[in-house]
């Protein structure tokens, strides 16, 4: 296995960004963190955030004078798109493309719209990605603490011949080179991100937890016991795996639990589960998943809304609300 090359503070030159006006589009989870970190790194930032809504209020409270996307893009040498993925195509066509300066830099924190050709930038632009591998609020908090969330960078178009150095400089501006920066491609970032969230992190985990819970409850066990076993303890186990891999987790659990892992784990995640994982990946790679999600948005999200409602009405969610209300140390 070849080790990936990592980039740190001394590999990035912040002076490449001096004198450039950077427009951060969207003041949400990622947007507020990028805008504030770049400003604290001594760079010239403008924020675009539509008015109405809490994020506009927050931008004003944080000292910005938020403008429209079109206005910000007109002034900017660098346009960083931190809008929800599903609205980016429309905003690109209506507000960014007609206003962006020639030879500007266009950047993203996730590759979806470039990878699935929703946005097709003109060839004069540098097109790059700086994707923090953590939620926006952590990107801000760690920067303030002198730390940094690791980032991925990627270059899709290199019109200036300096695109990679520019991406590294931006990553430094938000604190990413303190944690370490890794180079990827728009395709690799997009496909692995979607696969991870669908198969393991969100899709797989939610159904695993819920199926375990329902199996115990259907067999007559108390729902509260089932909740602790199948949901609450997941965090304790994942913390051990996060800190020291499967080895640390197995060291910490009893040998009985470890034996049970070896006997039953592969009865749950079977060869046919792995076959299905390959099919999920194929749907991501072919663009089928992306097309379905964009179509779902065009038609008012009927499936998404129904599923969200169904999941919220599951027994495990109701039991959870009751039990967590007694555990004051669990963050609201
Ligand atoms: P978000 O939903 O938190 O924020 C988006 C902001 O854009 C909101 O303030 C919203 O009001 C504003 N907005 C929405 N539509 C708009 C429009 N038409 N015109 C102007 N403003 C509009 O989004 P986010 O989670 O920060 O995601 C932004 C990007 O970052 C996405 O590409 C996402 O994939 C990527 N990303 C997010 C995270 C994360 O931690 N949430 C992590 C890595 C990458
Ligand atoms: Mg959400
Ligand atoms: Mg992800
Ligand atoms: Mg994602
Ligand atoms: Mg136990
Ligand atoms: Mg042990």
Automatic annotation (TrEMBL):
Coiled-coil residue spans: none
Record: residues binding substrate: 254
InterPro entries: 6-PGluconate_DH-like_C_sf, KARI, KARI_C, KARI_N, KARI_prok, NAD(P)-bd_dom_sf
Residue ranges annotated for the KARI N-terminal Rossmann domain, each copy included: 4-184
One Pfam family recorded for the sequence: KARI_C
Keyword Magnesium: yes
Active-site annotation: 110
One Gene Ontology term from the biological process aspect of the record: isoleucine biosynthetic process
EC number: 1.1.1.86
Binding-site list for Mg(2+) 2: 193, 229, 233
A GO cellular component annotation in the UniProt record: cytosol
Domain KARI C-terminal knotted, residue spans: 185-330
Keyword ATP-binding: no
GO molecular function: isomerase activity; ketol-acid reductoisomerase activity; magnesium ion binding; NADP binding
Root EC class: oxidoreductase
Family in the record: Belongs to the ketol-acid reductoisomerase family.
Protein name: Ketol-acid reductoisomerase (NADP(+))
Gene: ilvC
